[in-house]
């Protein structure tokens, strides 16, 4: 069982499969990029023009209700109750509905953009409160990569049971000495994945996003549509999202180097992690692949999701700096 949980790639794959099954591979948006009218989550009754929603890729019995309306006619959407959300699945009821209603509530006092900013910061703070120990362990784990690599090199090529047992014991002793839980990042992954998926659906289904904007920017459009229309603001948000997403992964490594430099730690060649392989190599590969994948997907996301990812990435950058300053640096001082 421990070997299974140590394989993060396998665990991540299973988490993704679980999340896809939870969401039933359904999309709240139609092929025209507009939110399906029956998927909108609202805290109170409101009206939306037919041209701003999708009414063709919904159940047939509902299509007849809207087929005689012109594009400029308004459709009345009733408030979405918790019971309504639960009837479509517990994932929608327990995760998507609360996030969408939080966005709506904050947006009702400001605008759609601040709704996303406020909801993102509150959710990230809540997640951080529950996973702070795990995230500290994750950063300390990165600080220990050279020592872990040294142990791995020591037993490289030795496949007998005794060598494997001694390697495991030395690694466990290193974890214990530095107060690290090797499974800390797994807890963060399990908590963040459902929230990430929930936020993805909430930004497409929240009524404040469907009809709202941020500083005049329509958050329901995609960066690709913004580029085609020559709207530079969409590209600025997209580029900032990619940059800060990359920084959120890279900063812990930079902080690690800074900490070693500050402590005048000089590593011998055999103790340095190999960039082409090993733990550090895998981390870098996942970082680049993740950033590239997000950049590709974000072109067809509604800008609201890109905006959420930007805010979330900025939060993670600040969080990494705070964890390093108040937990890592003090520990090593």
Topology:
Blueprint: H1 2-6, H2 8-23, E1 46-49, H3 60-66, E2 74-77, H4 82-87, H5 90-109, H6 112-143, H7 145-154, H8 161-177, H9 184-205, H10 207-211, E3 213-214, E4 217-218, H11 223-228, H12 232-262, H13 278-298, H14 303-332
Antiparallel strand pairs: 1-2, 3-4
Helix pairs in contact: 2-9, 5-6, 5-9, 6-9, 6-14, 7-8, 12-13, 12-14
Key descriptive features of the protein:
transmembrane; 333 residues; protein transport; elongated; Membrane protein insertase YidC; cell membrane; two-stranded antiparallel sheet; disordered N terminus; mainly alpha; YidC_ALB_C
Summarize the structure.
This protein has 333 residues and is mainly alpha-helical. The protein has helices spanning 2-6, 8-23, 60-66, 82-87, 90-109, 112-143, 145-154, 161-177, 184-205, 207-211, 223-228, 232-262, 278-298, 303-332; strands spanning 46-49, 74-77, 213-214, 217-218.
Report the sheet-strand fraction. under 5%
Number of DSSP strands? 4
Would you identify the regions where 5 or more consecutive residues have pLDDT less than 50? 1-6, 268-277
Q: Can you list the strand order of the major beta sheet?
A: 1-2
Structure overview:
This protein is mainly alpha-helical and about 325 residues long. Among the domains are: about 145-180, no CATH class; about 220-333, no CATH class. About 70% of the residues lie in helices and about 5% in strands. It has 14 helices and 4 strands. It has helices at about 1-5, 10-25, 60-65, 80-85, 90-110, 110-145, 145-155, 160-175, 185-205, 205-210, 225-230, 230-260, 280-300, 305-330; strands at about 45-50, 75, 215, 215-220. The strands form 2 sheets. It has a two-stranded antiparallel sheet. It has a two-stranded antiparallel ribbon with strand order 3-4. A hairpin with a 2-residue loop joins strand 3 and strand 4. The longest helix has about 30 residues, at about 110-145. The protein is elongated and about 75 Å long. Keywords: Cell membrane, Chaperone, Membrane, Protein transport, Signal, Transmembrane, Transmembrane helix, Transport. It is found in: Cell membrane; Membrane. It is a multi-pass membrane protein. Its main location: membrane. This is Membrane protein insertase YidC.
